[in-house]
Structure formats: C-alpha cells, structure tokens
Amino acid sequence: MYRFIGFLLVPRRNDITVRFILLMKKIILFILTVLISGSVFAQYKPLDQGSSLNFTIKNFGIEATGKFTGLQGDIAFDSENLATANFDVSIDAGTVNTDNSLRDSHLRGESYFDVKNYPRIHFVSTKVTGGKNGAFVITGKLTIKKQTQVISFPFTETSSDDGLLFKGSFSINRKDYEVGGTSTVSNNLIVSLNILAKKS
Predict the structure, then answer these.
(1) Is 50 found in the same domain as 141?
(2) Are 39 and 33 within 8 A, CB to CB?
(3) Structure-model confidence comparison of residues 10 and 28, the more confident one
(4) DSSP characters for 28-57?
(5) If you average pLDDT over every residue of the chain, what do you get?
(6) Of the chain's two ends, which shows fewer C-beta atoms within 10 Å, N or C?
(7) Which one has a higher pLDDT value, 53 or 200?
C-alpha cells in the first residue's frame, strides 16, 4: 500500500517493514545453505582401525617406542578450500602401549598420563594452510591432562578408497604437559600419525 506525502507517492511503513523482513529471511536462508552444503561436502570420520598413532622417546639414551589407540572425532577437509578445514580428534590415553605391561601401568598413573582423571588426549585445529612440496601445515591446540599447548606441523593427504589418509609427525616436550618428572626418560618425544578417515 502507498500513501501521498505532498506530491510524492511512498510506501506505507508497514510495507517497508514486511519487505525488510522478507529480505533478511532470504539472506539468512542463503547463508545457512552455504554453511550446510560446505560442512556436508567435506565431512570425514577418523577410523581407529587402519590408523596409527606412535611415539618415540629415549630412555637411558636408547630409543623406546609406544602407541595409542581409541581414535575418535570429526574432520572437515577440502584441499581446494583450506579455510573450511577443521580437525577435532582425540585418543584414549589409557590405551598407551609400550610392550611392557609394568611400564604401561606406570604411564597410566597420576604422575604421567593420569588416565583416571584425564581419559583422553585431545587435538583441535585452529588453522590449516598450504605448505611445501604439496604438503599442508596444521596449527592447533593439543591438550594432555589439564595442559593445552599450541602446536604446528606439516602433513600430507592422499585419497584412500572412500576416504583420505593423513600422515604427519611432530615433536613435543612432555614436561609442557606435566607428564612425568625428572627421570632417565628424555623430555622430548616424536609423535607419528597415520590417520585414515572415511566420509561420514
């Protein structure tokens, strides 16, 4: 509906309000469509079976190895649109396995991983960028026990059946996460990742 103001024909206030509401609905619907389509397009679930998370650390100067299982989480990844990439994954701290039951029991204890109070080790990405030689660089927050530290490391991505295979490695200082005290065990350890993820 319109009304005359002087010699001008202008829409009534109610008409302007209705048009504004309809316009905003269209804008919101468009934004939701883009967000939903983007998130559905590149969603993956990491698989515990077929994946591996290994670590290497020195004890008395001799390399010792171990592994974790119980991988869970969600991954959004599109190599052509890294701005939408997101990794939110965790492992079961209680699955630590160094092929030595006595040592593993000690590692699960309060002075090391304290799995009773902190059952999972969690990583969530904050940024993924392109790297050298076709690799990528991921930055994120790693939480072990009650300590969270920002880490960054390169990784590769390859197609695998109906999913993707991510490979990478990084080094951390166990004392940054209050894992163990002063001992014959080195402070630094190397973590190697092979993560198989399938479309969800």
Answers:
(1) yes
(2) no
(3) 28
(4) HHHHHHHHHHHHHHTEEEEEEEEEEEEEEE
(5) 87
(6) N
(7) 53
**pLDDT at residue 10 above 70?**
no
**Is residue 94 located within the same domain as residue 75?**
yes
Each residue's pLDDT tens digit, 67-101: 999 999 999 999 999 999 999 999 999 999 999 99
Which residue, 105, 95, 109, 106, is CA-closest to 66?
95
Together in a domain, 29 and 75:
no
Whether residues 94 and 135 fall in one domain = yes
Return the CATH number at 149.
Answer: 2.40.128.110
Rounded CA separation 147/118 (Å): 11
Closest by Cα among 93, 100, 97 to 72:
93
Q: Are residues 137 and 101 in the same domain?
A: yes
Q: What is the mean pLDDT of residues 38-62?
A: 86
Domains in the chain: how many in total? Answer: 2
Report the DSSP pairing between strands 86-97 and 62-76.
antiparallel
Cα angle, residue 156 at apex, residues 165 and 159 outer, rounded to 5°: 35
pLDDT digits (tens, 9 = 90+) for 107-154: 999 999 999 999 999 999 999 999 888 899 999 999 999 999 999 999
Q: Quick one: 8 and 101 in the same domain? A: no
Whether residues 10 and 76 fall in one domain: no
Range of the domain at 130: 44-199
